[in-house]
């Protein structure tokens, strides 16, 4: 089997509060499937890539749920592993509190996804080494040593298989590890990654970047030929080869911004896989990221390619 894109990481069930405020006063939650690399796989599949997701789920109802979501979106799950004892991980989204902010609260320690190791994924080497792009994120480095090892095994399989691009999203999660350790581990990954995504705030925390420009310069100096620093509604700065590109996303009413960075990254990977120009895929990615912010859930707001053509006004999304 050969895929345009293979992603590796933990899928989680997201319980998103239906009321704003502290969780102790919330009465009801919406259930969604999520997880950074899972989101990237789903978004890329919606945008037309032949995509596989690798991860481990519990033999439980939530494991069945996340797999059903992936399959419904056309994501290949044939290399997913199961844990007979550990549960599929969970996180809750507390919305609009404090001071209008939202945050994620994890229930993932000891989860099935965190127990994934290279030996769980018998098809890992085959899936990864036959892909055009392999993508993972700093969340997977932070969750557990087993999952981190699985990522490194996949990176080596990708390199050995001649995979065109290794893509990495820094995705620093301060609830999972500290910035100093993260900076050291991320630096190791960037020695081998071709493409890196990093939020401006993460670039500040991990690498002392004082601006997006400094952020892309630092990231490029660590290895990748293609670096993107994202700034939410303020857009993104992308450095590719000798050129720099910036984007200004459409300003939208934000309902839930979780997952916007994953959708943005997926759209960039779609552009690369399709050979689009950097101007075009950056503009596309900005629209896709903004669209996710208008809908509750991590990937539900990702448009299909045909919808994107309508949103973008017609002819510029090439087939
Ligand atoms: O990017 C969205 C993710 O942050 C969310 O789905 C949960 O993967 C997750 C994490 O660990 O924060």
The major β-sheet equals: 8 strands, mixed
Helix % is 25-40%
Structural class of the helix and strand makeup?
alpha/beta
Unreliable segments (pLDDT under 50, ≥5 consecutive)? Answer: none
Bound molecules: 2-keto-3-deoxygluconate
Oligomeric form = single chain
Distance between the first and last residues' Cα: 23 Å
Count, helices: 11
Architecture overview:
It is a single chain. By secondary structure, this protein is α/β, with parallel strands linked by helices. The chain contains eleven helices and 14 strands. It has helices spanning 36-46, 61-72, 124-129, 138-143, 145-161, 179-190, 200-207, 212-221, 260-274, 278-293, 305-312, and strands at 5-8, 12-20, 29-34, 51-54, 56-58, 81-83, 90-95, 103-107, 133-137, 165-169, 195-199, 226-230, 236-240, 243-247. Strands 4-1-9-10-11-12-13-14 form an eight-stranded mixed beta sheet, with helices on both faces. The mean pLDDT is 95. The site of 2-keto-3-deoxygluconate has 14 residues, from helix 1 and helix 9. 2-keto-3-deoxygluconate binds at residues 12, 34-36, 39, 91, 104, 139, 173, 258-259, 261-262, 298.
Quick synopsis:
The protein is α/β, with parallel strands linked by helices. Helices cover 38% and strands 22% of the residues.
Q: What's the helix and strand layout?
A:
Layout: E1 5-8, E2 12-20, E3 29-34, H1 36-46, E4 51-54, E5 56-58, H2 61-72, E6 81-83, E7 90-95, E8 103-107, H3 124-129, E9 133-137, H4 138-143, H5 145-161, E10 165-169, H6 179-190, E11 195-199, H7 200-207, H8 212-221, E12 226-230, E13 236-240, E14 243-247, H9 260-274, H10 278-293, H11 305-312
Parallel strand pairs: 1-4, 1-9, 2-7, 5-6, 9-10, 10-11, 11-12
Antiparallel strand pairs: 2-3, 7-8, 12-13, 13-14
The chain binds 2-keto-3-deoxygluconate (KDG).
2-keto-3-deoxygluconate is lined by residues 12, 34-36, 39, 91, 104, 139, 173, 258-259, 261-262, 298.
